[in-house]
Structures
1.
Amino acid sequence: MDFEFSDEQRQLREAVEGFATKEYTFDRLRAIKRSGAGWDPAVWRGLAELGVTALNVPAALGGLGYGPTETLALMDASGPSLLLEPILTSAVIATALLRQFDGASATELLRALAAGDRIAALAHFEPSSRFETRWVESRVTPAGPGFRLDGHKAVVAHAGLAQVLLVSARSRGEAGDAEGVSLFVVPRDTPGLTLTEYLTVDGQRAADIRLDGVRVPESSRLGGEGEALAPIEAALDVGLAAVCAEAVSIMQALVRATVEYLNTRQQFGQPIGRFQALQHRVADMTVHLEQARSMSYLAAMRCASTDLEERRRALSAAKVVIAEAARFVGQQAVQLHGGMGMTDELKVSHWFKRLTAIEILFGDGDFHLQRFAAA
Amino acid sequence: MNLEFTAEERAFRDEVRAFLRERLPQSVRDKVLDGRDLSRDDYLAWQRRLYEQGWGAVNWPKQFGGTGWNAVQQYIFEEESAEAGAPRLIPFGLKMVAPVLMAFGTPEQQQRFLPPILSSETWWCQGYSEPGAGSDLASLRTRAVRDGDHFVVNGQKTWNTLGHFADWMFCLVRTDPDAKQQSGISFLLIDMKSPGVSVRPIALLDGGGREVNDIFLENVRVPVANLVGEENRGWTYAKFLLGHERTSIAGVGSAKRELSRLKRAAREGRRDGRSLLDDPLFAARIARIEIDLMALEITNLRVLSEEGASRAPGPEASILKIKGTEIQQAISELMMHAAGLYALPLQVEAMEAGWQSDPTMPPVGPSFAATATSAYLNQRKLSIFGGTNEIQKNIVAKMMGL
């Protein structure tokens, strides 16, 4: 048994943490949140230079060919800085998805992603699916030499800044069927594709996407007809493991900030950290944090498992523990900071909001509790 | 034992319901039911309608122009109003400063300040918390120094709710820095238009409309005539004020309203294309809150029926505050989760205008989702303000003999 990072993983972690701490101060984060673009291409370029965009791309395609443990190190290092750039969307999920396919569409795009020249986002979930990955109502139909896509994709992270969308659509069967889902590479500026962009609770950008007679060539389909659900679920599980690691790093930061506040804030002639009720609260936060950390390791180790049932159970179990911990630690960090915890001025509320988003991403705790019980 | 209202109480409730049906404007009701922000005018317009009805001050005795209602009647009125989607009564004038003035103010102060509160010509705010004095309010440092017929006030107040709307502020100030903490505090009424008063908004995590402020007081001259009661006895009045509010502290009516919204939201929310109400786990989560709320309603009524006019506050107010805020927060959590992925978009404009009316922000997701997450974030304040729930637990433990 070994819970340590290798030297190489530690170096990656330190490089990313150093970059994020230096380049992504809280003031900078707030400025980028308020800016019209909502992200900073220069930061993205910097991350690409550190190898972040190449991390999960196979070495043969210009990548570093790393896997889940390195992704865990990356998320752990970048998490507390709350980077708004599409690390999870493009460098983790899109690459994890594309590397499962062989064709030229996939490999060319992977090369561009590795170099940081392109950003790609998976557009899969739909308004009626809630968190169920099989629930695909969007349709693909043959049209001339290529295909026609129609449908509606919900809350697609970073869709507005991605040049390429990876869009799932059903060629046969009913919503809820595991079979019959295909996947397409669709440039964002393709006619018939409309984005409604908005801010999400964590200050990131996302969009709903309407597909209205979107025409794509035959070469845009990734993999075989109707066989895309398994690769999509595999990529989403890699993403789920990544947000588990991110959540743990943020919870760690919140516990630290809370302890510091309790040791500093004076009321009734003493630091409020002297009150046992508040000490016990910090102890409970720490129990949640460490349980969550354990499950983030399990998620990383199992997210690429070929044993589907084992993978599913482990990832659902991880999300149950991490969603509950994220909620408790986030809420209590705000509570113990009192009114200050409610302000935009302290990073505490920004961390809390990212944890709130993570609670929901890829299925909330109740969704995964039921999936675990049914598995 | 009988858990039902009496015939007179039921008749009274019907009267209140009829009034709400006829006089509560649909536009205001919609805003409240959708969880959107209300404007100053929305609050004032509603308060004026109550005033026209003779219900301008539901918690005041008749001699000051109030309704003279007993605690149960006040409770019925407030719960029915909240459930129907009426704006909450802004408490600072009607429920906070007014009872203090009635008990401790001079006849001149009562004649000057109470009628415009009743007719809602003046909007009051509270100057209690300071950056260094939150849970430990008695450590406040805003200083008032006597200078002839005036006090000169310097200091900073914070977490001031809706002070940007206010004409007047009741304020705790330190008049004797040498006395033991609680003994050197006075209760002053400050005209917000006085030179030296500045109001600065505090940006909150929910990104919603303006709610709380910092208030800076710089050499503000306050006439001695605006001192309430005796100098250095302000802490007594402040405690009187804090213990006075028990009819609506639990928020049973608004919790019922939000619970109904939650059920509608769950019906609208989708899971695999079906209603979220068909999800047994989600339905059970709603049921558990509903059960807690049933218990709280009865607890609240027990407290009210036991309440003698001059009885010293026991742990009841704290119990109602703790459980009431926990229930409201739990409802807001479930509301957010009912939205599924659509909990993520933060449609700030929706808080103010309603997204249907904003063409730059086309709707995404079910309608209830637009404000669900903002409300969840904002409701975290409930366990912090008005005495944190930790402080409330200290009070309960102390009252129990620990």
2.
Amino acid sequence: MNDLRQNLKSEFQNEDYRYAYAESFLNTKLAAQIKALREARGKTQAEMGCLIGTKQSGFSRFEDVNHRVWKTDTLWKIARALGVRVDVSFETFGSLIDQKERFGRQFLERPDFANDPAFLANDLAHSARRPPYARRIAGTMAQPLLSEVPQNYLAHERKVQSLPLAQNIGVWGGSSGIAGTGSSALSAIQSYVDATQVLPQHPESLGSALLAA
Amino acid sequence: MPNWKVYCFLHGERRKNIIVEWLKNEAVPPDQIAVFQEKIDALERSGPDMVPGFIWGPVAKDIYKMKIKGNKGWKQLRPMCCRGPFELNAYTVLVGAIEKDGRLDPRDAVARAQSNLQKLKNDPTRRICERLTTKPEK
């Protein structure tokens, strides 16, 4: 178990501590994500302010991790300006630890609607050309994991369309940092799944699975 | 794995963690310590770029101010820190301070931070990387 997980597991035994930590993390995550998405879209704070009907100084406070009062209608305005949606849900404290461990720019980034893989012509989850394993892998991807699909995902998608079935999984293997031909990668995954009855959840673990196989 | 490290200055002959001791002396409650620790954890994970508004400055040569805002009635924690000073991906918290009505307590917090930074440069072992609270009371 790593240090952060171990420390938080101990510190979260205190109720006041864990709720304050969770609230602080929510504020940090929102501020950091707004900044990360704005920068990814190449927009300035002034431009964002203009889009949501405020000044640069008014918008800049949303990129401050100490900002604590969030109005959902403001969040929706920001979301619209960034081409994403807002999600509010109740979660466990355990999932907070998972998120904290993965916190960083890559964890926060999301494509806008125009680049959302779910709306591309040959959508990953439903492509008939995909082998069943790839479809099932894709189907298990939650949104945060989807953001971790390699940045060159779209390029992969285009490449996949022109490949025969057996090589498709090889593309996935390649995106997981695995070099190898499509057919050997496919059989490696098949062996792994047959032996463990566990499906790799996303490209990184797929890469680990292939290496293990 | 964390990419950055946040250290605390060790002061006095007994080399005590200056921030842990300051939080204890100021009787800062666990929930406020939690907010401070959360910002540090985020900083260690992603660097200052993804924790916007946490580190301000410089307020003086080589000295930055950490902003931990809290609920009404909470003390406004403003510990002073420096970048490094021995590596790029690190900060060292040098002295604790509280802001009230636009003034720092202690008043000479910045000067103390600069003095502690000099002591640290003279003796690189005078710092530690540890949690602000190891076992909060239940």
